[in-house]
Amino acid sequence: MRKTKLIMSMSGVMVLTAIWMFACSVVSAADAPRMSTEELKGLLGNPDVIILDVRTGGDWDASDSKITGAIRETKENFENWTDKYPKDKTLVLYCS
Q: How far does CA 7 lie from the centroid of its chain?
């Protein structure tokens, strides 16, 4: 019984580690394309663009500036983004 629990615990850690490594390897901040405020303004209202506000809870709560129509997402929900948003849309993430 104890050996089974240890194997199950180790399996869980390995799965979580694999998920974390995949999420980190998808794209680093340095590799992500960036755009100016003016470029983003030009995309507002475009039905092919989904704007995601990915600020941390405290930063989001404290902010008076939010992009109208942006969807609030958290990094904890990252794994569900691939199923949630259409693959033919452009996702724009912002955090400041």
A: 31
